[in-house]
Amino acid sequence: MQNRKLPIRKIVSYLNDSEAEGGGFWLPNIQRPFVWSEEQICRLFDSIMREYPISTLLVWKTREEVKHRKFIDNYHRDVKLTDYRVPDNSRSKMMVLDGQQRLQSLFIGLKGSYSGRELYFDVLSGGDMAAPEDIRFRFAFKDKGNAAWPWVRFKDIVFLNNKLDLQIAQELAKLAPDELTADEQTTMQINIGRVRKEFVNDDNITFQELDGIDNPDAYRVDDIVEIFIRANSGGTKLGKSDLLFSLLTSSWDEADGEIEALLEDLNEGGFDFDRDFVLKCCLTVLNKGARYEVEKFRDGETKEEIIAQWQVIAEAIKDVRDFLVSKTYIRTDKALPSYLALIPLIYFRYHHPEQFKATPGLADYLLRSLITGVFGGSPDNLIDKLVRNIQEQDGFVLNEVFGVIRADGRSLEITPEVIFNQYYGSRAIHLFFNLWYRDFNYSPALGANGPQVDHIFPQSLLKSVKDINPDSGKRNILRYRAEHRDQIANCMLLTADENGFNGKCAMSPSEWFAPSRFETAAAHEQYLDMHLIPKDSELWKLDNYEAFIEARKKLIQEKFSYMLRTAQGDHV
């Protein structure tokens, strides 16, 4: 193993280039997807400009025909890793084992784009000192048409050749709408010099090279997988699911493509299933226990079972996802506080596919456990206990399942207070609204057109109500604080159009619910019923806000009476 150094511009030019020194840099398929945000990328560039160290990379030089892919140049949220796969080959190549996020960020910033926007640099920033945690040198991803002076496309500075730093600064100064002051000229010249020094001239990238060409016995494929795990398990760079995936892909060439295809099917319509969830499902249905443990994959047996049973496992997961949509009216990630609640159902579907179709109570289990949050915290032991109960009962017996959950010290009780403690912005409020608005369209073609939670009495209207301050005698104390304004009894679900600029906005209930806004009396009546709005129009006035809330709480309680129990356990 040897340490090597290269300038940032040079190593970025080596990415995806088989003609470069060592065969270019590539990503082995054991690497997880790129996850950095725009802000993280900009902070990396700021760190480099501030001469902060960016850690050492780990690279494997090899001719092995290992599965690998290119770095992503033009990144977007829906990018598919399978589109970047490279055909197996026995040419020399440099596989990046540690440092993908940093190299990928540099590649996007210097060679590509992020969601169609390129990296720009404020050439007049950096003059003022900043705290270590703050941004000093300003970077941002911008559309070319929206990038006005002093923002300059960063790659133009880094890849400009045959010109002195002063000449580059002089050319950039011509782009300014007004003549630069002496201080601005000095700041820009210093910045250009620093960019060229940190990104072009200095050897700022250090990488450890594991030479599997000159020393193939020391760095075989199995050794590299183990090195990868050890290099990434000491900190927070990879989760355990990523480590397990690295072991799985070392013997299953199609792993990334198969899991990516499954996730694409699962997430259609607005869910957010991930690889972590899929691997936990695999471990659970194969009776390996829900907890992530690298040893489970090192024995080889678990990997072979997953490969052999993959299609059956995938079908079980997809079937439960379809059950979720069709039987509970949960249509979106916003209404699913815990994906882990699905795993016992997936286990049941995998081992008892015929029983799954006819067993009553599955929706009751799911709704009650989601609403009460029983899968919060560390639920692996609970999942294992539920699996054992399904094995013992040879099926999914609702009362037995609830008994296991309660015996684990978790409450399943849904009282009116559970609902009324929901508020604007809380995750579970979407779950209640999914159950509430059963005929609402939750599958628009464009995600931005999805339903949106809005205040019935607008925030601005409620904030206008002030009480007298006993200390000053002035009327300057808010009568309705956030907890009063944001409660579920003051929230409703609107379409994107209804909640848009030409929609409800800050319109009062008296205006929004006025009969004149509706084509017929029947349409007006139907709208009030759907949103559980008290029909006494006097309650729609600001002066009667508190009475409106109490009347609407009664309607909400009636709506959910089929699943509510009092604190004493009696049915409402």
Automatic annotation (TrEMBL):
Residues annotated as transmembrane: none
InterPro entries: GmrSD_C, GmrSD_N
Domain GmrSD restriction endonucleases N-terminal: 21-248
Span of domain GmrSD restriction endonucleases C-terminal: 439-556
PANTHER family: DUF262 DOMAIN-CONTAINING PROTEIN, VNG6097C
Name under which the protein is recorded: DUF262 domain-containing protein
Organism (species): Azotobacter chroococcum
Upper taxonomic lineage: Bacteria, Pseudomonadati, Pseudomonadota, Gammaproteobacteria, Pseudomonadales
